[in-house]
Amino acid sequence: MTADGRKADPVTVRVPDELPVLTQEASRILLAVLIELTEVEALERPLDEGNT
User: Fold this and answer.
1) 17: DSSP letter
2) How confident is the model over 2-50, as pLDDT tens digits?
3) Could you give the angle at the alpha carbon of 51 between the alpha carbons of 23 and 26, nearest 5°?
């Protein structure tokens, strides 16, 4: 029911049986989205082993 007492239309949610394959391109896109959504500074490139 809705807040005003009316019946809501049914909603159908379809999900896959298993997770899709996470490709390198998809990983980069998801990481870019996460970086956009956060205020934490992200590194442009990995640090060298000796630099911390």
Assistant:
1) S
2) 677 778 889 999 998 998 889 999 999 999 998 888 876 666 777 676 5
3) 10
